Amino acid sequence: MNFEGTYVAMVTPFTKDLKIDEEGFRSNINYLIEKGVSGLVGAGTTGESATVNHEEHQKIIDILVDEVNGRVETIAGTGSNATSEAISLTQYAVDAGADAALLITPYYNKPQQHAVIEHYRSVAEAADIPIVAYNVPSRTGLNMDVDTIVELAKIDGIDAVKEASGSVDKVSDIYRALTHEGLEDEFNILSGEDSLTLPLMAVGATGVISASANIDTRRMVLMVDSILNDDYTRAMELHYEMVELIRALFIETNPVPVKTAMNLMGLPSGPLRQPLAEMKPENLEVLKKALKYSELI
Questions:
Q1: CATH number (domain holding residue 179)
Q2: Structural domain tally of the chain?
Q3: I need a surface site. Which of 36, 208, 265, 283 has the fewest CB within 10 A?
């Protein structure tokens, strides 16, 4: 599967009593599709996957696939730090009809690099669905090596990596290594750092899985499309229009500022589940200022 364009790492909206807000989730799906996104990710980190139970996790995937109804690509977050659980969730995504699955590297237990490869291989062999590996060491304590990612690219069914290590050099090295193996057209690199999407795409990434695209969808889509059309002048203009907001959206742990911004914009979002908490007042003011500058509130 070829991954290209803007994919939104969606929040999971909750009601006041912390149940999944199905109506709100469906509304957000349609809102984002209308803004021109390439695909939507449900039950990922931005969707507070760490604090939803298995039944809720499956419900999020079901709602996503049902409401999208083939209009854009659907990616189900199915990662876990237990390979057996990752297999179970990914098999569920297959049965639900998702187009792809996003699997974060196993967190906390910090498997060795060769063990990471075997983890993803086990999932790919057990579930017939395109897989996006997700490298985010700030969350997991594990940073996949370039060589590890290239080995993943050789496994049938693993079609992309979401790279959130924060290094442009690393993405350059990944793309160069993929090219050396003749895999650059078969395996996609997606930006996992919203503020680095422009430079990462300049060195080989083909799109972004973005949390901030919940908020400033139009500009993110326009920037990514501009890069794909080799209009870097316009892309740079859009990058600088968004950079202050993107920084504000990560001033505290994601998705705290994103959900706060959506509530301020009148989009379905609702409260956070513990252990996440509301923003500090001084950071909230920074976020409000950025939203006003971006003409979003």
A1: 3.20.20.70
A2: 1
A3: 265
Q: Is the peptide bond before 13 cis (omega within 30 degrees of 0)?
A: no
Q: Which of 183, 87, 182 is nearest to 127 (CA)?
A: 87
In the three-class reduction of DSSP (H, G, I as helix; E, B as strand; rest coil), residue 192 is classed as coil
- Within 10 angstroms of residue 95's Cβ, the number of other Cβ atoms is 13
CB count, 10 Å around CB of 229? 10
Q: What is the mean pLDDT of residues 91-114?
A: 97
Question: For the segment 116-159, what is each residue's pLDDT rounded down to a tens digit?
Answer: 999 999 999 999 999 999 999 999 999 999 999 999 999 999 99
**Residue where the block lists tokens 């939104």:** 8
**76: three-class secondary structure by DSSP:** strand
User: What's the chain's length in residues?
Assistant: 297
Q: Which residue has the tokens 């996790």?
A: 57
Q: Which domain holds residue 22?
A: 5-229
Least Cα distance to 288 among 67, 280, 176 occurs for 280
In a domain, 47, yes or no: yes
CB distance 106 to 142 below 8 Å: yes
Would residue 259 count as lying in a domain? no
Whether residue 269 contacts residue 24, with contact meaning beta carbons closer than 8 Å, is answered with yes
What 3-state class would DSSP assign to 208?
Answer: strand
For residue 293, the tally of other CB atoms under 10 A from its CB is: 13
Give me the active site residues, please.
134, 162
Using DSSP's 3-state secondary structure scheme, residue 25 falls into: helix
Domain assignment of residue 79, yes or no: yes
